[in-house]
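Homework help board

Subject: predicted structure for assignment chain

Our instructor gave us this sequence and asked us to write out the predicted structure in token form, then describe one feature. I got the tokens but I'm not sure how to describe them. Can anyone check?
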Amino acid sequence: MNNFTLNAEVRSDLGKGASRRLRRLASLVPAVVYGGEKAPESISMLAKEVAKLLENEAAFSHVIELNIGGTKQNVVIKALQRHPAKGHVMHADFVRVIAGQKLIAHVPVHFINEEAPIKKGGEISHVISQVEVTCLPKDLPEFIEVDLNAAEVGDIIHLSDLKAPKGVEFVALVHGNDLAVANVHAPRVAPEAETAAE
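My token output:
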């Protein structure tokens, strides 16, 4: 089991201009923590610490111990705003984790047995790379597995086709939205056409 920790400081200088100054002058990432009984808190974290945390995919689907000026609280990542070109985090939203209270989190999707439909002449398109789940903190999965072993050319794999771990629900399905996860399609260019073109 991974243990994730992140240090932060309370941020009193608020607004877009203040956030820009934080990022530019102090290499800090502005963020907000909300949820539970407490009021939302504006915080900042070292950009290099955030980048190091996010190197591990599991950080997105684990409870993180956030140390805000010596006060610790458990949170999960709710949303990240990234720089459109450089990809580094510009702002983060965290939600407090309350024991015994369901949370909503984004969990990575792992595709397995992808060679099976490829051997049948298909190509695979991943429609989503993560899925929103709701569960108790103790049931939060590290990832959701998508097994493509039985997939045929022309198949579309939906959320309803996936097996959710015990105690976990897919948020989209709760709201009646059966999202496509992946599809197996015939190659865009037939091999014969490629040979003729050569």
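Reply (TA_rk): Your tokens look well-formed. For the description, you could write something like this. The first helix runs from residue 16 to 25. That's the kind of observation they're looking for.
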